[in-house]
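Moderator note: this is an archived Q&A kept for reference. The question asked for a predicted structure of one protein chain; the sequence and the answer are reproduced below.
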Amino acid sequence: MDLTIDTTPLVDRERMGSHRSSSGPGLQVCLYFSPTHKGQTHLCISTGQITAEEVCIAAAKECGILPVYHNLFALASEDLTFWFPPNHEFNVNEYSNLVVHYRVRFFFLNWYGQGSRKTYRYSFTKSRISTVLDYGVIDYLFAQSRSDFVTGQAGVSPPLSTQEECLFMAVLDLWCMAKDYNLSLEEVCRTVSYKSCLPKTHRQDIQRLNRLARYRIRKSLRHFLQRLGHCPAGGHSLKLKYLMQLAAVEPSHGTETFLVHDPGWQQKGEEPMRKFLLVSGENGIQTRSDKMQEWQTFCDFPGIIDISIKQECHEDVRMESRVVTVTRQDDRYLVIKLSLKHHLVHT
């Protein structure tokens, strides 16, 4: 198959046929995927007061997310540096144009239903089980992950050494587009460049290559396309393959890292010790000091027996920060101090 890769315009595609409502006053909720528009759109809330949980429910309805999956989603800030708690109240009348993102926050890599470690969800009907994520959530998670991959947001920034793997992901992306819109791959490639499906750093690296190197890339692309051309897999199988490939090139995908303080050090009259806290579905809670590189596992989620959150007090004066204590089954505990609006650290 002959792709007009270098002559195709570089399209920053938001999925073909995507729709964005015009920005205006109020609260703009960015939705990564809508079944109606087959791409990104915005949910606009112009007046009134509304909680983050109510916004998520409205967004889920627009995106076709079933109620059983609502607790996997949350609202993130426009720059994806912090999450809004469910009880956060937006006074929409005070905003000229506040943008938030409706995102999948909680997921395990083996929730995809692939590989040796499979996870199942028991249904309300006795003796029936199903995969944890349905097609609606997979569609949304794919669109969200694809956006993170291309824009380099949410800490997704694969190194240039993974260029071949990223090229394969670009081909998967184009193939998913063809499946979504019932088009041939040739038709998709006439309007969408494979480079628009790659991270910005990879696009810039390709632009700097000589003609021979770019020819080798086109040859690799043809090889990938030939492999997929005889593949009978459906659109959702391709999206699952994309998600698994992303997890391979970016192991931190789906994890959250926070910079926290150990309140115990401050009580001793010393400077509070800074810690990094890593939370992931696969490895539970891990910590390390800012002077160390290796992560120490505190516990996995089944090992937690109690989590307490208390408002910090200093000389009987209530502070805005919160002291969080996580207790394990062996009575060992982890104490950290968090601000009300705690920012993520993208490493």
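Archived answer notes: Confidence is low (pLDDT under 50) at residues 1-22.
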